[in-house]
Amino acid sequence: MCPFSNTTSEPGEAAPATGKPESIVHEERAQLDFSKSMSYGDYLQLDAILTAQKPLSPAHDEMLFIVQHQTSELWMKLMLHELRAAIGHIARDELQMAFKMLARVSKIMEQLVHAWDVLATMTPPEYSAMRPYLGQSSGFQSYQYRSIEFSLGNKNRAMLKPHEHRADLLAQVQAAYEAPSLYDEALRLLARRGIAVPASHTQRDWTLPYAESDGVEQAWLTVYRAPEKHWDLYQLGEELTDLEDAFRLWRFRHVTTVERVIGFKRGTGGTGGVSYLRKMLDVVLFPEIWKLRTDL
Fold it and tell me: What is the pTM of this model?
């Protein structure tokens, strides 16, 4: 006797089927007619999304390359949505909301890290078959990725140039370039809470690259030496650590996948490819939060 049904069966015998798939659908009263109502595909605009893959080469593997990068751009759209909101919440001292959003950003980055595993199934000959069709297009030119970098504090005026041909895209990237970054707002929050942060790091030209400061490290050390007193600021520091940890993994998997697929050939966007990406591995977004671990 099965305790979860009204049927019986002998030991070793299969339980009788409860119904055919078609009858189950009708029993559950599933919505089947969408001639006058919105369907799943309508809501998600799947006609537009699933017809946006337009390979230019006869190579079978170009579909993988396109889908990989389009899905990454969708994840980056969500990442920017969460990052911008988190920065706004920190500016308004609404840390609990910001923590949820920053945790989500870290999880999105984990998705992007694993996405490289799929692209890594493309072998060098497979990529070489489609590469001539890419022209000079490159992920280096992603305006969403650049907005993420700027929002995280890695400001670089030269990286506005690739978007000058599109005023609408330039406006989006420039807004992130000119605004305080996530870390800038975190430091301004510390100062509002009465923790000594150098004025050079709370009132500055936000377009300049971030410069590491002993004074900023001392501010974070104040938090980390008394976490019970500054618990939400301590948690903010750890959320930032999680985020940069995930971002480093994303960058590392990127450079490793590129080296695996094209070796040390120059990138389609004109950079040295792997050599450029390796230099980016050395960029530290929140330097004092990492340095304090040695000095704590």
Answer: 0.87
